[in-house]
Amino acid sequence: MMFPNRKGAAGTALIAVLTMVMASVPVSSIAAEMLDLPDGTKVDLVATCPVCGMTVGGPEGEGVTITYRKGRVVGFGGVAATVFRDGKVVGFDGARCLFVYNSIPSRFEVDVADMTHQYVTDFVTKKMIEVERAFLVLGSDVKGRMGYEMIPFTNKGDAEKFASEHNGKWIVQLQSVVQRTQPETSGEKTD
Prior knowledge:
Oligomer: single chain
Mean pLDDT: 81
Number of helices: 4
């Protein structure tokens, strides 16, 4: 017997107390606030993205979200992260913010040489993957939390299928994009 059948003031008081206790449990304690990364470190899902100022794991700290409209995918929110040599982990709202962070490190007062691992969320598996291995679909009609987003995939075939179904313009790997955007440091080309 869970609760005896209580009538009157005592039963009403018991229900009122239980309702107040249940209502006082913070919602954030229900959702995981830390996400395990493949290297064993963790990224804080309720931290603020240093690039855009949004919550790393989305408005509710959920980590990965896919939005549908009329049965069709229209939105994707997936965490990205950088791990530094000293163990510090910086989380990002998505792959696009990670790319911005890498592209202008002086703005964020970081040295890319101190970065040991970088991760993005695979669209298919919803798992964190090394950004160097990811195939990123650009220009698709599936938007991130802040508009256009780089949608990551582990498998190139999955990226190609997604691009064809969602009007993706390009499929790139982050390292090739970063190399093309970095200024040359000598007279020689590094292609």
